[in-house]
Specification:
89 residues; 3 helices
């Protein structure tokens, strides 16, 4: 199953490394990544494959949210089909 991870917050060293490390702990593979820094704000979207995830999706989502909160970031994950449905015009 594919999912979309979004990360938003003030730019700081190690954001990509930290989020990718957290995903790796759950055996989640990064398929595509796009990131940018606008002034001092960091934004990133990732497409990930959760097929081999070693925990339930809700546990992964909670772990990413907790990671973000501990690093002054907003880190969210949504199933790709739900993300697509929400962003259809």
């Amino acid at each position: 199953m594919k999912a979309i991870v979004t990360v938003i917050g003030k730019d700081q060293v190690g954001i990509i490394a930290g989020v990718c490390t957290k995903l790796a702990e759950y055996n989640v593979n990064v398929l595509d990544i796009s990131q940018t820094v606008m002034q001092e704000y960091f934004t990133m979207m990732m497409v990930v494959d959760t097929a081999a995830c070693n925990q339930p999706f809700d546990a992964l989502a909670s772990a990413l949210a907790d990671y973000g909160q501990n690093h002054s970031l907003s880190v969210r994950i949504q199933r790709e089909d739900i993300f697509d449905a929400m962003h259809r015009i």
